[in-house]
Design goal:
By secondary structure, the protein is α+β, with helices and mostly antiparallel strands. Helix content is about 40%, strand content about 20%. The protein has 16 helices and 16 strands.
Length: about 475
């Protein structure tokens, strides 16, 4: 027992020290093949949904060079986004990082959502947090590979104690709080690995004492949040039918996070109110697609936490979780956007309210999209009195888009380019082309994704939906042709 406490104290001993008191950081370098685009620095807002928030941005110049400076009061992980691509790195206050980013070879991978790309550091100090984390990850991978045969048995836990001793010695002079936490909770993740030869009740109690008993939650530490989510699993698998009935009532009849909290408080591992509420956010969200509980009630519970929690972090996480579960779902608001059309004017979704919107994402290099554009011309002629057509072009070079429109003057609906608002790629989860959405006159999603102009496997196309809309709005008329948005 004393040995374990000693390890924990040593691994946390230097957390109070800081490497630099500056409150900004800088990233500069070259993004080959991504000239004239926007590079954005994001922080992870929460590690349940991996929702990110933009904190800085800059334009990559015509030679591919960029320079971004952003506020930073502590060490953390960041994302670097260029259109649909994303890279990860770690930053420290006062850090000045020079990197190179290579664009994917295909235009599709450059644009579509969250395409991972590698970044290379030109130079890094020996004790930079990126070097430290890479060094630790390699050591941990080697440890796991070497001890693979011991996993699930008591000897594995003894080897973990040896690993703790070793890490404490080699990292004793490191002053990075983030790195110390990264190591500490990474060890926790492997320490909770059990097996047939391990008393899982005792192991779970040990992990709780070592990592969660204090009640402290480190929301911006990825390894802590990963351990948290691994540790608190299956919390709705209750031990009695009476408790199951209470849980059913709490969710399906009352929509009551308070009632759920009172039920879970019986568990010794959930006595802490802050931890318990975070577990509720996780647990109800995991039930959203199971069919065990009403989805609207789960959303209602998240809404209640979002509005009433005494913990600001939980308000953010509950809000992000609700958005993750419902965004783009029929019956929920479609994300707004602000894009520039081919005439240089701003187009927003909000200003389209009052008519249905058929939102279309396409690129000139996509042969399927080109064929569908011809069909959309006929649909627009027939239904544009009640339906606004908006096509969002995803070509890298807007000149290709403009050239296409000039060659097709018959396509008289609204045409915009994504480039001044690349966030639309994430907001509409553009993972392939073409993609379509049908949005109602009130801004609420109707079909997501919507039917395409071409028939699907059951011979249904968007024409059928448009016809139903027309008949509902004009029950005594025949469909007309012509009109414009």
């Amino acid at each position: 027992m004393m040995k374990r406490v000693f390890h924990i104290v040593l691994l946390f001993a230097l957390l109070a020290n800081t490497a630099n008191s500056s409150e900004s950081a800088r990233i500069s370098g070259k993004a080959t093949g991504m000239e004239n685009r926007t590079i954005a620095v994001h922080v992870i807002e929460d590690y349940f949904t991996y929702t990110s928030k933009k904190i800085a941005g800059a334009t990559i110049n015509e030679n591919g060079f960029f320079d971004v400076k952003f506020p930073l009061d502590k060490e953390r992980q960041i994302q670097i986004k260029i259109d649909g691509t994303v890279s990860f790195m770690y930053v420290q206050p006062g850090g000045d990082y020079k990197i190179t980013i290579e664009a994917p070879s295909s235009p599709q991978k450059k644009i579509l959502m969250n395409t991972p790309v590698d970044l290379l550091f030109d130079t890094l100090p020996k004790y930079d947090i990126n070097n430290l984390i890479l060094d630790f990850d390699e050591r941990l991978d080697a440890f796991m590979a070497y001890n693979l045969s011991l996993m699930g048995g008591p000897k594995f836990q003894l080897e973990i104690d040896t690993l703790k001793d070793y890490l404490t010695k080699i990292y004793k002079d490191i002053k990075s709080p983030y790195f110390k936490e990264y190591v500490f909770y990474s060890i926790g993740a492997i320490e909770q690995i059990g097996g047939a030869q391990v008393d899982m009740i005792k192991l779970k109690a040990k992990v709780f004492r070592d990592y969660f008993a204090s009640g402290k939650i480190i929301y911006d530490q990825e390894k802590y949040m990963l351990l948290f989510q691994q540790f608190y699993t299956d919390v709705f698998k209750l031990t009695s039918k009476e408790d199951d009935a209470v849980l059913y009532t709490a969710i399906n009849k009352r929509k009551s996070p308070k009632m759920i909290s009172e039920l879970l408080a019986k568990d010794a591992l959930l006595r802490n109110e802050r931890i318990r509420e975070l577990v509720i956010i996780k647990a109800v969200s995991e039930e959203y697609y199971t069919g065990n509980y009403y989805q609207d009630n789960i959303v209602g519970i998240l809404d209640s936490i979002r509005m009433n929690s005494v913990y600001p972090e939980h308000k953010v996480i509950a809000s992000n979780m609700k958005r993750k579960l419902t965004e783009l779902n029929p019956g929920y608001p479609a994300p707004d956007f602000e894009l520039i059309n081919d005439k240089g004017k701003t187009v927003t979704l909000t200003e389209q309210k009052g008519k249905y919107v058929y939102l279309h994402f396409w690129a000139s290099w996509n042969s399927t999209a080109m064929a569908e554009m011809k069909l959309m011309t006929e649909l627009h002629k027939r239904y544009s009195f009640d339906i606004t057509f908006i096509s969002v072009n995803m070509d890298e070079d807007p000149a290709l888009w403009m050239r296409f429109l000039k060659a097709h003057p018959e396509m008289k609906w609204i045409h915009v380019h994504y480039k001044n608002n690349p966030e639309i790629i994430d907001n509409y989860r553009i993972t392939t082309l073409s993609m379509y959405y049908l949005i109602g006159p009130d801004g609420i999603m109707v079909q997501s994704p919507a039917y395409k102009p071409t028939p699907n496997g059951t011979f249904v196309s968007i024409d059928q939906t448009f016809h139903e809309i027309w008949m509902r709005l004009h029950p005594k008329e025949k469909p007309k042709t012509g009109g414009k948005n």
